[in-house]
Specification:
Number of domains: 1
CATH architecture: Beta Barrel
Largest sheet: 10 strands, antiparallel, barrel
Strand order of the largest sheet: 1-2-3-4-5-6-7-8-9-10
Number of helices: 2
CATH superfamily: Calycin beta-barrel core domain
Strand content: over 45%
Shape: globular
Number of strands: 10
Radius of gyration: 22 Å
Structural class: mainly beta
Distance between the termini: 52 Å
CATH topology: Lipocalin
CATH class: Mainly Beta
């Protein structure tokens, strides 16, 4: 089969147009590492509650430091209740990181109340829609307490988060549960 000049120019034109798109679509190693958490990136709002009462949540997840970490900013505003007539505002700052030595994800949270929680990822479901972290250490709380964060990706625009606590020698009990909806 012999190609004429016009056919060759068309092929070259198509290659010039489509090759950069194909090359750019490939994931970097860093992008691939964060695949389980891609659904989180963005801004979220939600409603939920538990022990502190019912409240409104604002949350954001973003990559920082050349995609080495994901920063999480959370603000939970709980309405006044009989037991807490002033209501409550809770804020925490967290970071997902990847521990290369242990080959697992770690979550560190810094809370306005002075607690610092370090979690290790316990599991991720086969379909990637459920991720569970349990504490390895908690600062500024009596020894033996444990915490667990469970994330259920309901769809591309909704995540359910369940936070549970376990007192010394006890099983986990729900503390808060929220459904977050993507804002952007």
């Amino acid at each position: 089969m012999q190609l004429n000049r016009e056919s060759i120019l068309k092929i070259v034109f198509l290659l010039v147009i489509f090759l950069p798109a194909v090359g750019g679509a490939q994931m970097t190693r860093q992008d691939s590492l964060w695949q389980p958490f891609k659904a989180f990136i963005g801004s979220w709002t939600g409603k939920g509650g538990g022990e502190p009462g019912f409240g409104d949540y604002e949350r954001s997840y973003k990559f920082i430091f050349n995609k080495r970490f994901i920063e999480i900013r959370n603000k939970s505003m709980y309405s006044p209740t009989k037991n807490n007539p002033k209501g409550e505002v809770h804020e925490d700052l967290g970071y997902f990181s990847y521990d290369k030595t242990r080959r697992t994800f770690v979550l560190r949270q810094f809370h306005t109340e002075g607690f610092v929680n370090q979690y290790k990822m316990d599991s991720i479901s086969e379909n990637g829609k459920r991720i569970i972290f349990s504490t390895e250490a908690i600062e500024n709380i009596p020894a033996g307490w444990r915490a667990r964060e469970s994330y259920d990706i309901l769809d591309e625009n909704q995540i359910q988060e369940t936070f549970e606590l376990a007192a010394v020698g006890k099983d986990f009990e729900p503390y808060t549960k929220v459904v977050l909806k993507r804002v952007k």
